[in-house]
Design brief:
The structure is a single chain. The protein is an all-alpha fold. 70% of the residues lie in helices and 0% in strands. The protein has helices spanning 3-21, 28-35, 39-45, 49-67, 79-94, 99-113, 115-141, 150-169, 176-189. The longest helix has 27 residues, at 115-141.
Length: 208
């Protein structure tokens, strides 16, 4: 097996063990036994357990950063096309073979390991917010979104994504099409939806 393949094997084993039993409960001895390598092989690639955890975060965050900027907004894009674009990005994000383990790792483990990892996760969420802020500002420029503070809207979107993706990783949400449709409708139209008020609704305007 080539060096990079061996390193990837160790990273995959570490990700699975960290996600299943936690960072503190996982030992290097368990990791190398699971990977079927000698202890010396582990230290060819990683300084210690913290180092392999760090590299897991770096590798997977980089993968996510490559995917999300591919969501393109155009002036002729309608709601259905926006749903499809978001769905395509979600599928690319969640189709990665280790996505479930990594999501669980970030949501349940990374923040509690130490302050350095917590700061890295916080930086990741801020970068995600900046990316979506750019989307919102672009949508506003195209007349596809209201003139609300784009950064604030982006924080709402990232918060929703964090929750629904975590639910997906836990198996509580399974239909990505439904998730994408609901997210786009909520972002575009809010809790009131896209429909005009029904005829016959009592007006609050005072008579002249």
């Amino acid at each position: 097996m080539r060096r990079e393949e061996r390193k990837d094997q160790l990273l995959e084993c570490a990700l699975r063990l960290f996600a299943e039993q936690g960072y503190h409960s996982t030992s290097i001895a368990q990791l190398i036994r699971q990977a079927g390598v000698a202890r010396g092989t582990f230290y060819l690639y990683f300084k210690n357990k913290r180092d392999i955890f760090q590299q897991l975060l770096n590798t997977n965050f980089t993968y996510i950063y490559r995917i999300l900027p591919g969501l393109e907004l155009t002036i002729g894009m309608n709601e259905k096309q926006l749903q499809n674009a978001l769905l395509h990005s979600l599928r690319r994000l969640l189709s990665h073979k280790n996505s479930v383990d990594f999501i669980n790792l970030v949501m349940q483990e990374a923040i509690g390991v130490d302050k350095g990892f917590a700061d890295q996760v916080e930086h990741f969420y801020k970068t995600m917010t900046d990316i979506f802020c750019g989307y919102v500002a672009r949508a506003q420029a195209l007349g596809k979104a209201g003139k609300t503070d784009p950064y604030l809207v982006a924080r709402f979107i990232v918060g929703m994504l964090k929750e629904v993706i975590y639910q997906w990783a836990r198996g509580e949400i399974q239909d990505l099409d439904q998730l994408a449709r609901a997210l786009v409708k909520f972002v575009m139209f809010g809790i009131r939806g896209a429909h005009e008020p029904k005829a016959g609704r009592v007006s609050r305007k005072r008579p002249a």
